[in-house]
Amino acid sequence: MISVQILAIAYAVMGALLLYLLIATRRTVSFKIFLVILVSGLYVGTYLGLKDLQGWPVTEELPQRFQLHWAMISEPDKSQKTTGSIYLWIQPTAPTGKLMAEPRAYHLPYDVKMAEKVENALRQIDEGQTVEGQLSRVELAPVAQADTTIIKVDPNLMPVAAVQERETGLQFKALPRTSLPPKGR
Q: Quick one: how far is CA 81 from the chain centroid?
């Protein structure tokens, strides 16, 4: 991974070369202005592109399954005109429970129901439990006919109105404690 210090040195060298090029060459003024704008754009583009390296929370979609390490809830404040946010520090997991990648910070928009779920998960973490998060869809209940046979509904084949009734959400659950092997003597 490229460190920020190396990039800063590289841009300083590039800036020095640009300054030399601007002074030493007999190019037109419009070409020199174009070069200054191009290099300035590269500086800004690199800064915005490196936000992940700088530790800012990402607004990407959450992984399907993850382990929640911690969270912070920032409630909306009308006097400050803030909409509120939920920040999650999570680590993706496989269906087997194995951790798959390094932890990452995520930013979610504030929602009262989501904030309550996150608060409950934080309480479980405070109690020493490992908490797993999972994106889930609550499917429509199976439809029963008059002869009491149950029809299973395929969500991909449902009409648009029925698809809109499905709810997506984030669910948290405490994982069972792992038993440690006995200590050797």
A: 24
Q: How confident is the model at residue 150 (pLDDT cuts 50, 70, 90)?
A: very low
How far is it, in rounded angstroms, from Cα 81 to Cα 76? 8
Edge to edge, what strands does the sheet with 167-174 contain? 104-109, 85-92, 65-74, 131-138, 167-174
* pTM value > 0.90: no
Amino acid at 44: V
CB 43 within 8 A of CB 11: yes
> How far is Cα 72 from Cα 107, in angstroms, rounded to an integer?
10
Q: Give the other-Cβ count within 10 Å of 106's Cβ.
A: 18
- pLDDT-based confidence at 124, cuts 50/70/90? very high
